[in-house]
Amino acid sequence: MSRTPPLALDRYLAASDRAIADHTAMDELLDVFAPEAVVQIDDTPIRGAEAIREFYRGYVNAHVASQHFWNTTVLTDGRQRAEWVCAARTAGGAVITVAGVEHATIGPDDRIVELRNEFTRPPA
């Protein structure tokens, strides 16, 4: 029986939790993205490897624990869609929940070229 490798969005969401738990996993998180990828978590697009690294460095440093749960599907146009929820503890000690839907365009090397998030429950 052959196993299907995880989708890019599955790797991304799992790696974001691992990077918070162990900062040495940051490279694993960043490797999910193509070098010239665009990430848009809120209204501001982040372009290119260095800007994405800085964004996720801030994200990881702002949290001490997180756990995502999600369902990923591949749309008819080839994009991947993940509906997700997360519970997290911030570096300041607050416990938060957040949820959203992410769409990713995947390049030929199975890395995310464009990631767009829409919060269905903003961080609270």
From TrEMBL:
Gene3D superfamilies: 3.10.450.50. SUPFAM superfamilies: NTF2-like (SSF54427). InterPro entries: NTF2-like_dom_sf, SnoaL-like. It comes from Pseudonocardia nematodicida. Residues 19-114 form the SnoaL-like domain. This is Nuclear transport factor 2 family protein. It holds the Pfam family SnoaL_2.
